[in-house]
Write a structure and sequence with these properties.
The protein is α/β, with parallel strands linked by helices and 286 residues long. 30% of the residues lie in helices and 26% in strands. The chain has one domain: 3-Layer(aba) Sandwich (UDP-N-acetylmuramoyl-L-alanine:D-glutamate ligase).
């Protein structure tokens, strides 16, 4: 198995369940707040680690209680946190509103925006077998990481969330793009003309559409009782990286990641709901 380097956000999640989303100016009652660790970067790192991946996390936390909890949490999954830095800014926060298994998320970046030029990205990436990236940290960091990975011939996985007006030239450098359906509609159409091997469009209960230069293939997911979809996309990315670094083919890796993402929705909480390798293997056999 190769080394999985995750470069991205580290947040504390504060979530509550609502009977219905509030209208403008309206106050509604929610259930008790649940505080848990999150951030797309940290989520993907934990997902990969729980599935047996050798994971290195690169990110920023605040010099506060939330930051200390986030670091301890990553350590608990045997994730290499050598390159997680503490800064004098609050740790990133995500406020999650859940409604009947679906969610809406508001992110306050905090320390996730406090990256500096002196981080040794080249040294870190050069030792990776695959690099996972998202868009919850400054774009210049993501862009630099992609360029370094290309120079070293290392594949990249980019989750374009939150979606932005990404330059086509940048997107065409990514090896595997993993947007959801909404994000996919906001991306340019000519991505597959560059370095991109596949566009993996995650579609919830409808599975994943694998788009390659020679055509598209739909890979179905399993039918589960959804309790919380928070972190399902991050689970997919982490699981996909584990499968690819284990030598699985593209379609086999997508099936593995699909299984992991589906199972993650059967429990409450992004990281708490992420499955372990033994859970995936048992269900894949079925």
């Amino acid at each position: 198995m190769g080394k999985i380097v995750v470069i991205g956000s580290i947040n504390m999640d504060i979530a509550t369940e609502l009977a219905g989303m509030p209208e403008l100016g309206e106050t509604v009652k929610g259930q008790d707040a649940v505080i848990s660790l999150g951030g797309k970067g940290a989520n993907q790192a934990v997902a990969a680690a729980k599935l047996g991946g050798d994971v290195v996390m690169v990110g920023m936390i605040g010099n506060d209680a939330f930051g200390a909890d986030a670091l301890a949490n990553l350590n608990s999954y045997c994730i290499d946190v050598t390159h997680v830095r503490s800064v004098d800014v609050t740790t990133g926060l995500a406020m999650i509103l859940r409604e009947r298994g679906d969610n809406r998320i508001i992110v306050a970046p905090g320390a996730n925006n406090a990256w500096s030029d002196d981080l040794l990205l080249e040294e870190i990436i050069a030792e990776a077998s695959i690099v996972l990236l998202q868009n919850e940290i400054p774009f210049w960091v993501v862009e630099r990481a992609v360029d370094i990975a290309m120079d070293h011939g290392i594949p990249t996985v980019f989750d374009p969330a939150p979606v932005d007006r990404f330059p086509v030239a940048f997107l065409q450098k990514i090896t595997y793009l993993t947007p959801n359906e909404t994000e996919f509609k906001q991306l340019p159409e000519d991505i597959l003309h560059g370095n991109t091997k596949a566009l993996l469009v995650t579609r919830g209960k409808n599975g994943v559409r694998v788009c390659e230069a020679d055509g598209n293939v739909d890979i179905a997911t399993i039918d589960v009782e959804v309790k919380d979809s928070t972190g399902a996309g991050d689970t997919f990315n982490g699981a996909f990286a584990v499968a690819i670094t284990n030598g699985k083919s593209l379609h086999a890796a997508v099936r593995f990641a699909n299984q992991a993402a589906a199972q993650s929705t059967t429990k409450i909480g992004a990281q708490a709901g992420m499955p372990f390798l033994k859970d995936i293997e048992a269900n894949l056999e079925k």
